[in-house]
Design goal:
- By secondary structure, this protein is an alpha+beta fold.
- It is built from twelve helices and nine strands.
- The strands form three sheets. The chain has a five-stranded antiparallel sheet. Strands 6-9 form a two-stranded antiparallel ribbon.
- α9 crosses α11.
């Protein structure tokens, strides 16, 4: 596909050339297909220098759901506090390519998206250190003062779960193309049984292994950069931990949040080990996580169902999976969410 068909207009190379130095035209744009929300491209110039460009999906979308400008502001505020890529350029003029976009530094490391990538890139002996490194980064994020990110207005609110339950239910209802009763039933149980918020922090909103860039094999297990900050807000940090653990699949799991999770390969830490590492650092109780696991199965089902709906509408561009595979995955996640929510006291 051409750059224009991918969502990159003919005016983008010139815009970039005026703002990035050194840069040598022509540019090559390659879609990175791991993400399912904002569109992410690797940009390579004639001298093989590389950058990352992110823009919202093609077509109509919720005003705040894919806000790359907000993402850029957060990245700039977090720099030096947690590992993030540097923001090099921001375009808020829709006339350039039909939507805002941001340009980030290219970090040369590992993004482990699936078992094939793990087997090819990360020896078994190095895998046990990955989970602890990610947990320690999450602990560091949850220790950052929200006011430093311009999110101070939310810092005193304790209604994070209620906001999230309303937001994702509304997103699902707005974009839904079919009935999914288990999703609605799980939502009702989660609203009824939501616990009181006991702690407030910055919440990434999509923290998981394949949204983190790791140092290459043999360099020591280091998180080079945490990616995809579009869902970040202030709220309950246990929601971040719950999502991380939902996505951290183990060998033998029947239901997985990712279609082909990387952590089913041998050698990775267990969910229990990672849960206790986080709680040892923060003082939280492991028993408190039951609700947040159920909530994140439901939230993930909403996200995957949204991808399914966008794919049916033709607004996600090139992809490596069929709409039907996302539809089946969303239905399985909704059923898992309902089972987990039904067990809550």
């Amino acid at each position: 596909m051409t750059a224009i068909e991918l969502g990159i207009s003919a005016g983008v190379p010139g815009w970039l050339a005026d703002r990035l130095a050194p840069l040598t035209l022509p540019l090559d744009f390659r879609r990175i297909t791991g993400g399912r929300s904002n569109l992410t491209f690797e940009v390579t110039d004639a001298d093989r220098r590389r950058w990352i460009l992110r823009r919202p999906p093609l077509g109509e979308h919720a005003g705040s759901a894919h806000d790359v400008l907000r993402e850029a502001r957060l990245l700039r505020a977090l720099a030096g506090r947690v590992p993030v890529p540097e923001v090099l350029a921001v375009c808020d003029d829709d006339a350039v390519t039909g939507a805002p976009f941001i340009v980030l530094e290219f970090l040369d490391g590992l993004v482990l998206r699936d078992p094939d990538g793990v087997r090819a890139e990360l020896p078994v002996v190095e895998r046990a250190a990955v989970g602890p490194a990610l947990i320690d980064t999450l602990v560091a994020l949850h220790g950052v003062d929200p006011s430093l990110l311009g999110l101070g207005a939310l810092a005193d609110r304790t209604d994070y779960l209620q906001r999230q339950l309303r937001r994702w239910e509304a997103n699902w209802q707005r974009t839904s193309t079919r009935a999914l009763p288990e999703l609605a039933q799980a939502h009702a149980l989660l609203v009824e049984r939501a616990p009181q918020q006991r702690r407030t922090s910055i919440v990434h909103g999509d923290y998981r292994l394949d949204n983190c860039l790791l140092a290459p094999s043999g360099s020591g297990t280091t998180v080079l950069g945490v990616l995809d900050w579009e869902l970040t807000t202030v709220g309950d940090p246990l929601a971040d931990l719950g999502q991380f653990l939902v996505y951290w699949a183990e060998p033998g799991d029947v239901h997985t949040a990712l279609h082909s999770p990387p952590t089913i390969e041998p050698g990775f830490s267990s969910r229990s080990e990672l849960l206790h590492r986080y709680c040892a650092a923060t003082g939280d109780s492991p028993a408190a996580l039951d609700y947040y696991l159920a909530f994140n199965w439901w939230k993930t089902a909403c996200i995957v169902e949204g991808v399914y709906s966008r794919m049916r509408g033709g607004t996600t561009g090139i992809t490596d999976r069929t709409p039907e595979s996302f539809g089946d995955q969303a239905a399985g996640l909704a059923a898992q969410a309902l089972r987990q929510a039904a067990r809550l006291g």
